[in-house]
Design a protein that fits this description.
single chain, alpha+beta, Ribosomal Protein S8, Chain: A, domain 1, 12 helices, 6 strands
Length: 242
């Protein structure tokens, strides 16, 4: 058996579920048998003899911790996905070990009727759980990058309006960055290969470049002047009366 994590005793029933349904759901998702010690809260896994995905095995402790810190099991299992990650904060690092201050900060993070927490989740596309002295967030890298400064600013005492406005601005900037396309400049080698496939393309390009750069010719440079005045084989000058 491999020890995964230890959870609070009042979360053991949530982990097991009615008739053991939640535990079976977790076992099916990870491919291991889960054993819970009701005395200590230790949660262990028996991976059996079959080959197990190492990523799932590595992420299972986070799943158990998330359930232990207040996240619903069906949400916690999302952590087994490759692009979903966990981040956890201890409120006591900001307010010390004063229970009254911890409760006050929990209330600020949740907001009236859960409004602040819901807005942060909606804007960042993450899921939060606030339990005891901990704040837990799961989401993809972009979502966590947005949620982190918002949560930390609230813990530092910032006003809700300021935090939410900054969160909206950060999301807009992230969307703009994700939509921007990097410019592509073909290398000389690929350009030469393409010229071979299209006969005459290189000559046409040189004529075009010569016309475009004519205004930039140094009149003192006889070589450049001569090159500018030189006609290609398919060019001619004709004079007609108007």
């Amino acid at each position: 058996m491999e020890l995964l994590a230890r959870i609070p005793k009042d979360r053991i029933a949530v982990l097991i579920g009615k008739g053991g349904r939640t535990r079976k759901m977790i076992e099916k998702a990870c491919g291991a048998e889960i054993e819970v010690d009701s005395t200590t809260g230790d949660v262990s896994a028996d991976w059996g003899s079959e080959k197990v995905d190492l990523i799932i095995r590595m992420k299972m402790p986070d799943v158990i911790r998330a359930i232990g810190r207040g996240l619903a099991p069906k949400r916690a299992v999302k952590l087994l996905d490759d692009d979903v990650f966990l981040r956890m904060y201890d409120i006591r690092e900001w307010v010390g070990r004063q229970p009254n201050q911890t409760r006050r900060m929990r209330s600020r993070l949740i907001g009236r009727n859960g409004r602040i927490r819901s807005l942060i989740e909606e804007i960042t596309d993450t899921e939060m759980a606030i339990y005891g002295s901990t704040v837990l967030v799961i989401g993809d890298e972009d979502g966590l990058a947005l949620a982190t400064p918002a949560i930390e600013n609230i813990l530092n005492g910032a006003e809700h309006g300021t935090v939410l406005h900054g969160l909206e601005q950060d999301r807009k900037r992230m969307r703009i960055q994700s939509r921007s396309l990097e410019s592509f400049e073909p290398s000389g080698e690929s350009s030469d290969n393409f010229d071979l496939l299209v006969p005459g393309l290189a000559d046409a390009r040189r004529r075009r470049e010569r016309r475009y750069k004519s205004s930039q010719v140094d009149p003192e440079d006889e070589e450049e002047v001569s090159e500018m005045l030189e006609l290609a084989d398919d060019e001619l000058i004709s004079f007609e009366e108007e």
